[in-house]
Amino acid sequence: MNEFEKKYYADRVGTGSVKWDGLQFLFGDKDLISMWVADMDFRSPECVGEALKSMADTGLFGYFMPPREYFETFINWEQERHGCKVEQEWIKFSPGVVAGIFHFVGAFTQPGDSCIILSPCYYPFMEAVKDTGRNLVCSILKNNNGAYTIDFEDFEKKIKDNDVKLFILCSPHNPVGRVWTKEELCTLVDICRRNGVIIVSDEIHQDIVLSGNKHIPTLASCDCGDMVVSLTAASKTFNLAAFNHSIAVIPSKELRDKYDEYQKHMHISGAMPGYVAVRAAYEGGKEWLDNVIKQIETNVKVLTDILTEGAPECVITKLQGTYLQWIDLSAYVKPDELKDFVVKECKLAVDYGSQFFTPEEGKEDCHIRLNLATSEENVRKAAENIVRAIKNR
Q1: Which residues, given as ranges, of the chain have pLDDT below 50?
Q2: pTM score, two decimals?
Q3: What count of other Cβ atoms lies within 10 Å of the Cβ of residue 91?
Q4: What's the confidence (pLDDT) of residue 268?
Q5: In the 8-state DSSP scheme, what is residue 344?
Q6: SS3 state of residue 162
Q7: Terminal CA-CA length for the chain
Q8: Contact yes or no for 48/54 (Cβ under 8 A)
Q9: What does the pLDDT read at residue 265?
Q10: What is the DSSP string of 185-240?
Q11: Contact 315, 333 (CB under 8 A)
């Protein structure tokens, strides 16, 4: 173990972890290496625990008003880390990014309206559209041997043909790990502006960007504050998912008013521990985050080296952002064999590629998505298990 692992890696079995303690229920086997849901096996930075302890020591847990410093800390983070200027009045609370996407779909569209995504995509995007009675439209990313790009011609055609009202963008992209360039983002914005489409940009993975890549917030890519809203959180960045706390940034007063009107009927507000934890993480977690990214880069290399040598026909998409590695096993496994192969032969719990497509698109898919925010040993064992299982077929 390196120094970061020694200090922060945690065996989460028996801690109530969905990722680890849910294996028997979800995968039928508790003795798997858990690499599915996107949270880390690392303790959050000390500043978070210290802030929460100080809060608890007051013994005061009444109605809470987030302090000015909470907003200032987030605004400074966005400016210093990503070059994105945010005003306090643009900031709205959401109980999670997925909840925020559901709320924006409800606030900005009507039942029967069409919403578009870039597929494959994080599956709650599809649920937010279909489960609210909207029409799901998918523009498939071009896949050139694991390198993904946007088919802009198809994207605009789908918008026009389906009278699309809303585009849900994932940036960085989950599951393929792309960090979109400024040019790509501006092209998407231009297409949406020409066709009267509002953009909801999910940027929850914005801080997990590997060397050689730079996250450009959609709001900072070009002049688009009148038609773009973003959702982000400290949850992926600092492993704080338990707080159900995310941030919506809405520069347009017209769109803010629509969001406020929609949320009136739900009376949603954030809880004190979430505000305290998020502020502390943004204030004191930078060094911890830098070490997490180094850990992920190490894990990417370990995985890639083992698979390239032992199972060279695996297609390993180059990871630019997120800690979620996208791998195509179709050279070795048939779609109807994939789940048994991964669970029973590789002894892994993963997310399957078919989850990130519509059922029709995903039925022949053989991708898996591996969570690399764990120990180097877990990653090494996972890669070796895949190679061994392939050789034993």
Answers
A1: none
A2: 0.96
A3: 18
A4: 87
A5: I
A6: helix
A7: 32
A8: no
A9: 86
A10: HHHHHHHHHHTT-EEEEE-TTTT-B-TT-----HHHHSS-TTTEEEEE-SHHHHT-
A11: no
Crossing angle of helices 97-108/123-130, nearest 10°? Answer: 30
Who's near 314: CB < 8 A, 6+ residues apart? Answer: 307, 308, 327, 328, 329, 331, 332, 386
Q: Are 369 and 353 in contact (CB under 8 A)?
A: yes
Rounded alpha-carbon distances, angstroms, from residue 205 to 170, 174, 210: 9, 9, 11
Q: What contacts 221, CB < 8 A, 6 or more positions away?
A: 182, 185, 186, 189
Roughly what angle, to the nearest 10 degrees, separates helices 272-284 and 46-58?
140
The label of the residue with tokens 């895949």 reads: 386
The distance of Cα 388 from the centroid of its chain, to the nearest Å, equals: 30
pLDDT in tens, 232-245: 999 999 999 999 99
The Cα 299–Cα 329 span in angstroms is: 19
In terms of Cβ atoms closer than 10 Å to its own Cβ (0-12, 13-18, 19+), residue 5 is middle
Give me the count of residues in the chain. Answer: 393
Give the count of beta carbons closer than 10 Å to the beta carbon of residue 32. 23
Q: Which residue has the tokens 């989850």?
A: 355
Q: How far apart are CA 32 and CA 344, in angstroms?
A: 9
> What are the structure tokens assigned to 179, written together?
């960090």
